[in-house]
């Protein structure tokens, strides 16, 4: 059963067409890896799913709710679709624990004590049980991104969106984030990941989508596509990212 | 000439009562000005075209005219125009509220918009309505950035109360003027008045320093 359904979606920024009549179905439990050259529309496609970008044409249905159904419906979509950003975007005035407890408290409306207990469990899950009282500025990039993943998970989403989650990190810090993402995938979380990490795509992804010029040009099994890329532009792209 | 300390001693009770009035007008003005400034600033930053236009017109009108003209308008012109009669004190407080509000609005707008866009997106992405994102996430970060420019505005507003001499409010400058008119001791009286202003602005600066130190600027 589809959890995300793009129906002929078009997105423009002024005169620039970023998504051209995209059709795409994503089922529960899939780990979709989105790749493509910069400007191909992959981040925009992701940001349309939780309505951080408004679509201009077609329809986009997430967990049976259209992104065009109005503000309160959009908030429901966002609660079901957690997002992790390239720049982490942790709330700087809150500790790691407060960052993670924030969503449950202010979105789901549960008590502070209960929210912090859940937050502690989530921080332990991303390997940061000891860092709860640290402010984001006191954490490394990799640690911040793991807190950001815990923060998104705290609202108990059905779907996780990752927008280049390791692109702002030093190579040696990427692994700790990718490990957390892999563990999440193994638990059966539905994930859509914009990334250049081909090893992650091969090992964790269940589906690989190559975008160019606002369209999906290749869509298939990661192992097959990476071993034998028939599309010449995908082949060229893969040579550049390796 | 000789500096006559006894002149200051005799004038002090009247000057202090003037200073008290100055503080009163400033405090009432700044509390009101903060309220007006937050509303107008947020209307400018996040309101639709209509709210934005109203706030913009208000800010431009106030920033574009001198505060003396504003208080004269409230005190002398409003009674003629709209049959609203106000006492000098009310006119003074209203003028400070309206005037400080316009400048504070720009401070509020600037600080909120200076907060990294990603924080707003992260808040929205959790499924919060915009107002909660502003109250719990953007507001606390923006507030810290507001403190230095707000301090500036508080000091300007405190000193602007001296202009209310034109409508006869018995604040500090007015008291000094009246005493001087009676004893002609300009050096002693204006020195004393200046020092009282310095003490008030100094206290304000100190309070803001402490507030700023207690908060980490983010």
Helix content of chain B: over 70%
Main sheet of chain B? none
Q: Roughly what is the average pLDDT of chain A, rounded to an integer? A: 95
Order of helices and strands of chain B: HHHHHHHH
Structure write-up:
The complex is a heterodimer of chains A (242) and B (218). Chain A is an alpha/beta fold and 242 residues long. Chain A has a single domain (2-241), classed as Rossmann fold (3-Layer(aba) Sandwich). Chain A is 40% helix and 26% strand. Chain A has helices spanning 42-49, 71-80, 96-108, 112-125, 141-154, 171-186, 198-203, 222-227, 232-241; strands spanning 2-13, 16-27, 31-35, 57-62, 65-66, 81-84, 159-163, 190-194, 207-212, 215-220. The longest helix of chain A has 16 residues, at 171-186. The two termini of chain A are 34 Å apart. The model of chain A has no long low-confidence stretch (mean pLDDT 95). In chain B, 83% of the residues lie in helices and 0% in strands. Chain B has helices at 5-46, 49-63, 67-82, 88-114, 117-125, 130-160, 172-183, 186-214. In chain B, α4 packs across α6 (130-160), α5 (117-125) runs antiparallel to α6 (130-160) and α6 (130-160) runs antiparallel to α8. The interface between A and B is medium-sized, with 26 and 19 residues. Chain A: Pfam families: ABC_tran (PF00005).
Summarize the structure.
With 242 residues, chain A is an alpha/beta fold. Chain A has nine helices and ten strands.
């Amino acid at each position: 059963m589809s959890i995300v359904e793009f129906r002929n979606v078009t997105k423009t920024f002024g005169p620039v067409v970023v998504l051209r009549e995209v059709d795409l179905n994503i089922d529960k439990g899939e780990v979709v890896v989105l790749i493509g050259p910069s400007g191909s529309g992959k981040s925009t496609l992701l940001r349309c799913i939780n309505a951080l970008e408004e679509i201009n044409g077609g329809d986009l249905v997430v967990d049976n709710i259209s992104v065009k159904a109005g503000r309160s419906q959009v908030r429901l979509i966002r609660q079901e679709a957690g997002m992790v950003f390239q720049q982490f975007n942790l709330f700087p005035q809150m500790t790691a624990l407060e960052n993670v407890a924030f969503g449950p408290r202010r979105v789901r409306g549960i008590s502070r004590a209960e929210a912090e207990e859940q937050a502690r469990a989530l921080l332990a899950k991303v390997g940061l049980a000891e860092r709860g009282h640290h402010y984001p500025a006191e954490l490394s990039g990799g640690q911040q991104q793991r807190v950001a993943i815990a923060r998104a998970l705290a609202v108990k989403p059905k779907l996780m969106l990752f927008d280049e989650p390791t692109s702002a990190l030093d190579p040696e810090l990427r692994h700790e984030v990718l490990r957390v993402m892999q563990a999440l995938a193994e638990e059966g979380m539905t994930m859509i990941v914009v990334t250049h990490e081909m090893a992650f795509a091969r090992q964790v992804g269940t589906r690989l989508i190559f975008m160019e010029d606002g369209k999906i040009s290749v869509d298939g099994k990661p192992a097959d596509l990476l071993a034998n890329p028939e599309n010449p532009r995908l082949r060229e792209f893969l040579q550049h990212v390796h | 000439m000789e500096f006559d300390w006894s002149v200051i001693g005799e004038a002090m009770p009247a000057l202090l009562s003037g200073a008290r009035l100055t503080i009163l007008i400033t405090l009432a003005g700044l509390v009101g000005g903060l309220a007006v400034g937050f509303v107008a600033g947020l209307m400018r930053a996040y309101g639709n075209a209509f709210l934005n236009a109203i706030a913009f017109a208000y800010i431009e009108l106030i920033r574009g005219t001198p505060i003396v003209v504003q208080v004269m308008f409230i005190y002398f012109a409003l009674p003629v125009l709209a049959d609203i009669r106000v006492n000098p004190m009310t006119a003074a407080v209203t003028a400070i509220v309206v005037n400080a509000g316009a400048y504070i609005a720009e401070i509020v707008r600037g600080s909120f918009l200076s907060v990294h866009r990603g924080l707003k997106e992260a808040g929205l992405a959790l499924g919060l309505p915009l107002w909660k994102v502003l109250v719990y996430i953007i507001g606390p970060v923006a507030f810290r950035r507001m403190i230095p420019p707000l301090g500036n505005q508080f000091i300007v507003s405190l000193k602007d109360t001296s202009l209310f001499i034109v409508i006869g409010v018995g604040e500090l400058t007015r008291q000094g003027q009246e005493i001087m008119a009676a004893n002609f001791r300009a050096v002693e009286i204006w020195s004393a008045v200046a020092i009282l202003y310095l003490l008030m602005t100094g206290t304000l600066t100190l309070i803001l320093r402490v507030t700023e130190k207690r908060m980490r600027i983010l």
